Every structure is written in C-alpha cells, then in structure tokens.
Amino acid sequence: MKLYISMDMEGVTGLVDDTFVDSAKRNYNRGQRIMTAEANHVIETAFGEGIHEVVVNDSHSKMNNLIIEELYPRAQLISGDVKPYSMMQGLDSSYGGAVFLGYHSRAARPGVMSHSMIFGIRNMYINDVAVGELGFNAYVAGHHGVPLLLVAGDDETAAEAEELIPHVTTAIVKRQISRTSALCLTPAQSGELLREKTIQAIANKERVQPLTPPEKPLLTLEFANYGQAEWAHLMPKTRMERYSPVVSYQADDILEAYQAMLVMTELAMRTAFC
C-alpha cells in the first residue's frame, strides 16, 4: 500500500506561536527540526507495518520546511511552492490512505494558531459544511477514493477530524490553552504517541471511508474584511452580495473548488490595510 502524508506545521508539538512557523523568526529552525522528527516517526513506523511507499507533501507556507537530509531515507518528499493542488499535491487514486500531520483547527474554532489558509478567512463552506484546511483536504482525498486514516495536531484539530470522519485515528500532541499557548508533549513523548497511532491507523484502515465530496459543490468564503472579498470577487464565476464580505463559487467538482479557493485567497491577500 502507498501512503500519502500532508505535513503542516502549526499542529506540531511545542510549536505554539508564529516564532516557530515563520521562516524569518527566531524559533523557526527549532520548529523545522521538531516537524521533521514528527514526520519520521510516522514514516518509519508505516514502513514497519508493511507500507511499501510513502510520499510526504510539505504543506506549510512556502512548503520548503522539512529538512530533506534528515528525512527518513525511504520516503519521498514534495517540496516547494507553487503547486496546482497545494497541500494535496501529488495525491491520486493509487494511494491506500492519507495522513495529515501537524494540522490545526479551522479559523472559527479555538486551537493553537487556528486559521483557514489565510488569516483573512473567517469561515469556509462546501455547500453547508463548514471546513478548514483539514476538511477541504479530506474532501480532495475523498474525490480520489482515498480515506484519511490519521490526523495529528492539538485537541481541537482532533475533535474537528472526528466530527467529519467516522473512525479516523487522531493523535493529540498538545492541548490548546489559547491560540498561542498549549500543554505540549515533549518530542520524545509525541514520537511514542505518533508511532502507536500510526500502527493503530493502519490496522483500522478498513473501517474508515473516504470523505466523499458533493457533486458540483458550492464553495463559500466569508472574509474578515470587505476589501478582501472585493479582491476575491475578481475571480470569474464568483458571486458576492453588496455589504457582505462573502464570496461564493459554483464548481463542477471539488478539485475545481479547491483551485478556486487557492486563487481567491491569493487575491484576497493583496488587500492593503491603512
């Protein structure tokens, strides 16, 4: 079986604020090392459980955070930006399961560094289902018939995953106190937990069904600022009500919705605040 890993950074143990996840700030190199170690615990264990191929997609910020020379040698790494499917680049129907590591909760929930793609998003919906990065990415996996087997992050991330996907295995490596503080496992403890949960997730794979996306999904993005919605509304085929920072897009399938979301959020980040 082939295993796909999408690796974000905010949900890694010990990483509690932007000084760990912003490459310009003082704790970033520490964050890289801890992130890479968490990936290795899952990768090595997966190979030990009979997985024959593991591909890791670096999915945070510029997507070049994992230290390749320290990555478990049998793994393959997708690194760098820009990627047509961003956090889910490279996934297809040949994979038997997906794992989301270092994930965080969506913008409207509590959780360590909670957000949805950019800090300008307040809420994101597929039809009437509220999703963040975790939910949207799980729908993309479901489009390919790939079940989400394991999610690692804080306690709010685990709860979000369990609400969306019955029987998914979750690994709670820290418990949020506020958006920038948490009760964290040490890296040694998180490594032990991740190995245990990887074994559990692989053994449990037959019980987990792919999160099947709706046909012709309606994507709706609620922005924090009207100017962000104006920029996003430059995307063709979008709809926006006057006096509301909400932009919607009727997609033919979830892959189109995903790419529309990527374009709309990139546009929204051009908003100037003065």
Automatic annotation (TrEMBL):
Q: Which domain of life is it from?
A: Bacteria
Species this protein is from? Paenibacillus urinalis
Give one Pfam family, short name only: Peptidase_M55
Tell me what this protein is called.
M55 family metallopeptidase
Q: Quick one: signal sequence residues? A: none
Fetch the CDD domains from UniProt.
DAP_dppA_1
